Amino acid sequence: MNVLQGLILTPDGWLRGSLTHRAGRIVALQGEPASDGAWRDGADAIVLPGFIDLHVHGGGGADTMQAGDAIQTIARTHAQHGTTALLATTMTAPPSEIEAALRALAGACRTRSDGAARVLGVHLEGPYISPERLGAQPAFAALPSVGGILALHALAPIRVVTLAPELPGALETVAALVAAGMRVQVGHSAASYEQACAALQRGASGFTHLFNAMSGLHQRAPGAVGAALAHAAHAELIPDLLHVHPGALRAALRAIPGLYCVTDATAAAAMPDGAYRLGRHVVHKCGGGVRLADGTLAGSTLTMDQALRNLVDGLGLGLAEASRRVSTHAASYLGMTDRGMLRVGALADVVVLDAQLRVRRVVVEGQADVDVAAGP
Fold it and tell me: Tens digits of per-residue pLDDT, 331-344?
C-alpha cells in the first residue's frame, strides 16, 4: 500500500489526513474535516485529483500529428505538470495525414508508458470545420462524413469530435456520432445561434475552446457563443489569460455549470521560445504565446498546473472550484466515474502541490514514476 498525507480534496470537501492507494485504486481516506481556505495557511502538501486535459496538440517539442513516439513525449511532458489523463488532439489536414496520425496514436491509447499521462483517446479537431473560422487550422476543411469518422475511429478511439454545425450534413452527422458513443462539440464555426442550438438538440454536448474561432455574442445575433452561454451544460475554455479576457472567462464560469479547462497546448509547451511544429504549420513561441507568422494565436504554451494557478490567482476562484474545472468536470463530460475525484474506489490519479500551487508529486493510476518538472 502507498500513503499520501496532507490536505486532501474529496467530493465532500477538504480533509486533513491521509489517502491510501493499492493496485492503482484509492482504498482509504482518513482524517479530520478542514475549511475551504485551509490550504492558504501554509499546508505542506495539497492533494488534488490529477488534472484531465481534453485538448492537447503537443508538448515538450513534440506534436500529435508526428509519427513515432511523439505522443510519449507529449504524455510525459504534461504528466510532469500534473496531468494524469488527456486526449491527443489532431489538426485539420489531408485524410492521409490524419489517418497516419491516428495509427501512430493507437498504441498509446491502449497502453500507458511509465512516467506518462494516460491517453484516453483522440479529440478529432477538424477537418469538419468552417473555412471561415479556421483559426490556426490549416486550410483543409472538409464536409462532415459519418463513414469517414467511423473509419478513423477504427484506427484509434475517438472520444470527442469538433465540427461546425452549419456545414451541409452536419446535423445528421452529429446524431450519428452521438449514437456511436462520441462527444460532439461545436467549434471552428460561423454558426448562427439557431444553428448551434440545432446541434445541441441533435446531441452535441460541448463547445471547443469557447469564444475562440467561433461566431461571437451580439445582442441581435447571439452566435455560437450565445448558444453556449444560454444552453450548454459543458464547454472547454483556455485559461491562459491570453486567449480569453478575464471578464469573458468569468461570464462563462457563471453561465456553464460544467465548464472545464483545457490547455490547447502545442509542441511549444514546456519549451523555450522558438519555432515549433503545429500540424503543417510552423508556429513561434514568444512572450508566453504561440502564433503563426501573421500573428494569429495558434494554440498555447499552457500546462494544467499553470491553468489552476491562473484560476486561483488570476480570477480569484476557490481552490476546490478551480480543481473541479481542471479535472472533475472533464471526467464527468466523458462519462468517467473513476477519474477526476479522490474517493474510495476511484483510480489513484493524484497531484500533490505545495502552498504556492506548484507540483511536487504526481501519481498516475497508482504509479508514482513521474519526474516532476522543475520550477513553477
Answer: 999 999 999 999 99
**Domains with residue ranges and CATH for the chain:** 53-338 (3.20.20.140)
Residue 105: left if φ>0, alpha if ψ -120 to 50, beta else—which one? alpha
How many whole angstroms separate alpha carbon 196 and alpha carbon 185? 10
pTM exceeds 0.70, yes or no: yes
Q: In what order do the strands lie in the sheet with 206-207?
A: 51-56, 83-89, 118-125, 158-163, 183-186, 206-207
Count CA atoms within 13 Å of residue 23 on its CB side: 3
Q: Going by DSSP bridges, is the β-strand pair 359-363/350-353 parallel, antiparallel, or unpaired? A: antiparallel
Residue 146, number of CB atoms within 10 A of its CB:
16
- In contact, 129 and 157? CB cutoff 8 Å: no
pLDDT tens digits, one per residue of 14-68: 999 999 999 999 999 999 999 888 888 877 899 999 999 999 999 999 999 998 8
Burial annotation 165-201 (CB, 10 A radius, 16+ → b, else e): bbbeebbebbbbbbeeebbbbbbbbbbbbebbbbbbe
Q: Which are the catalytic amino acids? A: 264
